[in-house]
Design brief:
Layout: H1 31-36, H2 49-65, H3 67-73, H4 79-83, H5 85-101, H6 107-133, H7 151-167, H8 169-172, H9 180-202, H10 207-235, H11 242-245
Helix pairs in contact: 2-5, 2-10, 5-9, 5-10, 6-7, 6-9, 7-9
């Protein structure tokens, strides 16, 4: 069956799902903090990375809801580390992926993502030009598009284009030759391409370096989560629900719960 470019390509069932939008890699943003860690003080990797990272991500909204209370009650807690919890969890997942791939991304999957992103960019750009002329899409919305065609440029352009169409959807929805679901897929493709570029840029050449990167990413997350748990324990002590808001990443299943000890140095202010 010939490929219909306006479909923005149908997903290949053999490929990972791209319909759920993912965050761009956080690993590169945190590289200065990773490099600054004392190699003699790295934390032992005694958790399952996927479980630990997803547990933290699930706790982030509850911890963020307490941020103002924590800021007011705890004067010795590293709020900046707590604010980075999500980024650090994603960085750990990226570092673990880099460790697993060791710079080896399935060439067929990589080619498919690049091709789909390139086609989607061209289609959306062509359609967008007409709606710019009619005033439905602001011309400024696409001023940042790249003249070059590097893979990161393509991904960035595709993100800008999908955003422009989503913002104008109330005006042009139903008139354009693709659905919101197709726009969501295009955004997923763009962010998957960003992730591929990020992994290729930062994934180490040697397994030893991959191991070190993963250990540093885990340490960075563990430090921040420890700060969060300490703060949550302090501000929720009387409520008795600190472990529900921020459970231990090392808790054993079936282990009998013990009563929390009164925090001695909560840092009240």
């Amino acid at each position: 069956m010939p490929h219909n470019p306006l479909s923005l390509r149908q997903p290949d069932p053999a490929d990972p799902s791209l319909d759920d939008v993912q965050r761009p890699p956080a690993l590169e943003r945190l590289r200065p903090a990773l490099a600054a860690l004392d190699p003699n003080k790295l934390h032992p990797l005694n958790v399952e990375i996927a479980v630990a990272a997803t547990t933290v991500l699930g706790c982030v909204p509850k911890i963020n809801a307490l941020r103002a209370v924590i800021a007011a009650a705890c004067n010795d807690v590293d709020l900046s580390a707590i604010d980075q919890l999500a980024d650090r969890a994603y960085a750990l997942l990226d570092a673990d992926a880099a460790y697993g791939h060791s710079r080896t991304i399935d060439p067929r999957f990589r080619r498919g993502i690049i091709q789909e992103a390139t086609e989607a960019r061209q289609i959306l750009h062509t359609v967008a030009l007409g709606y710019i002329e009619t005033g439905h899409i602001p011309r400024d919305a696409l001023r940042s598009l790249h003249a070059r065609r590097g893979h990161l440029d393509i991904a960035t352009d595709l993100t800008a284009l999908t955003t422009a169409f989503v913002d104008a959807w109330d005006k042009i929805g139903g008139q354009i030759p693709f659905t919101r679901e197709k726009l969501s897929r295009a955004q997923g493709v763009a962010e998957q391409l960003m992730k591929i570029v990020g992994l290729e840029d930062v994934a180490p050449e040697r397994p030893a370096e991959a191991t070190q990167l993963r250990l540093r990413a885990w340490t960075l997350l563990d430090i921040a989560y420890d700060e969060a748990r300490r703060a949550v324990t302090h501000v929720r002590w009387k409520h008795g629900d600190a472990d529900e808001i921020a459970p231990s990443l090392r808790a054993h299943r079936g282990r009998k719960k013990t009563k929390q000890k009164e925090p001695v140095a909560g840092g009240t202010g």
